[in-house]
Amino acid sequence: MRVVASTPKIDEMLSAGAPVAIGVSGGKDSQAAALATIAHLDAIGHTGPRVLIHSGLGAVEWNDSLPVCEALAAHLKIELIVTGRKAGGLMERWESRWQSSATRYQELSTVTLVPCWSTPSMRFCTSELKTDVITAHLKRQFPGQTIINVTGIRREESAQRAKATIANLNVRSGARIWDWRPIVDWRVDDVFAAIDASGLDPHPAYRDFGMSRVSCRFCIMSNIADMTAAAAQPESHDLYRRMVALEAASSFAFQGSRWLGDVAPHLLDDAERNALASAKASAQLRVAAEKRITKAMLYVKGWPIRMLTDDEADILADVRREVSDLVGLKSRFLDRESIHARYAELLAAKPAEREAA
């Protein structure tokens, strides 16, 4: 097994017996990180508490993910903490985000419709359902202590992760948690070699399903080969239809310009295929309509910052009527006068909001 990467700060904390929590998802990298970390802790005589922690994602998660984590915990003979977002899993988060977006649009609390899906640049799927949940749990589990949080991030994985450091203070934790990436320089062959040497099996999605990555069944970061492989698994079919239904309802494709419904259309019935085709047509018209909104009219922090001109209000009214009809929304404020009145109402509320804050 390759050696782990560390820093003087992490070494100092380990020597002092700091608690070590290893985030595990069921994927190969967290599995290898756990194996390598525990071996390292044993070798240096670490005396502090050690736990594995898994934040479940609900319906989007593979059936085998939690069992892989449980087998890992049994192998390492340490506790596995299982937690999750109290308001529901990631699918529920995507659905509620769409409902919120639709409501905000209907009430003219935003200028354009907001996509329901997480994106590579807006990964609330990771921050809200994993990082924030795990951080909150660890602070409760180890009150008053500084904690080391281990993740399986590797620089080889992507251009963004190539910039990853070995360790850093988690600024959102109130100086309570240090994030440590002990296998940051490992290659993928090192990862599988470590798992195989342990006698454990990696998640079946890799070698049985043919996936290159294991996170959600259908991930915003997945390539077409992985999404096709995921759709071929019977356990994914109900989720697939549920996600395509959200594409159809929202008129937003799962991966920007790539529609999940195009990956395995044979899994859809005629009504579902027709709804998807209609959503694609609506999406093109919605995008074209929203392009008529000038840059100066778009949502910015602190919006609205001014009243619209009559011409701008007319543009916004036309776009809102068109988009609402396309997506099936019952929007208010669809003419010049009502839009002016709504902007005046929002601007008047700002001093009261500042006083309340």
General description of the model:
It is a single chain. The chain has helices at 8-15, 28-44, 65-76, 90-106, 124-141, 188-198, 204-207, 224-231, 237-250, 270-290, 310-327, 336-356; strands spanning 20-23, 50-56, 79-84, 147-150, 167-169, 177-180. Helix 9 packs parallel to helix 10 (270-290). The protein is an alpha/beta fold and 357 residues long. The chain folds into three domains: 8-207, Rossmann fold, CATH 3.40.50.620; 231-289, no CATH class; 295-351, no CATH class. The longest helix has 21 residues, at 270-290. It contains twelve helices and six strands. Helix 3 (65-76) links the parallel strand 2 (50-56) and strand 3 (79-84). A six-stranded mixed sheet has the order 3-2-1-4-6-5, with helices on both faces.
CATH superfamily of the largest domain: HUPs
Number of helices: 12
Our measurement of the CA-to-CA distance between the termini, rounded to an integer number of angstroms, reads 54 Å
Which percent range fits the helix content? Answer: 40-55%
Predict the CATH topology of the largest domain: Rossmann fold
Which secondary structure elements does this structure contain, and how are they paired or packed?
Layout: H1 8-15, E1 20-23, H2 28-44, E2 50-56, H3 65-76, E3 79-84, H4 90-106, H5 124-141, E4 147-150, E5 167-169, E6 177-180, H6 188-198, H7 204-207, H8 224-231, H9 237-250, H10 270-290, H11 310-327, H12 336-356
Parallel strand pairs: 1-2, 1-4, 2-3, 4-6
Antiparallel strand pairs: 5-6
Helix pairs in contact: 2-6, 9-10, 10-11, 11-12
